[in-house]
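I'll show a typical protein example:
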Amino acid sequence: MLVASRDASAFVFVPRVSVVEVTRWDVRVVTTGGIIQYMGKSPFRVLAGVCLVASLALSANVAAAQSFTTRGTPVTRVLSLVVLNIRSGPHTSYPVVGRLYPGQRATVIGISSDYNWWRISCRLRSCWVSANPAYSRPIAWR
């Protein structure tokens, strides 16, 4: 999301943010993790607050990207039961990079540490699909 102040004096890119309100005296940001609010006494302090919020959001993204690990699994293939989003990471906050349609199969190379996401084989990137049994099911094992 591109964030701009109402007078267009500050621009910041902030991922995982649903709402940003920048007034002359405060900044309110609603992220996937909650609300961050910064109040300043001048427009320059508000701009500093926008930068602070952006850096917190970016560091949260980096931490989220680095916090997942892949575990080994005896499952080697899964079957999609519904239209299943293929994501770049093991969470719904990661971007969709493709789709599996009902009846399509994918080769499994691991499972997330929380056992909620299959890591599947993709070209040139890390790909993940939900391991929820309502959406996908194992069809082959080692």
Q: What stands out?
A: Residues 43-67 form the longest helix (25 residues). The radius of gyration is 20 Å. Confidence is low (pLDDT under 50) at residues 1-14, 59-66.
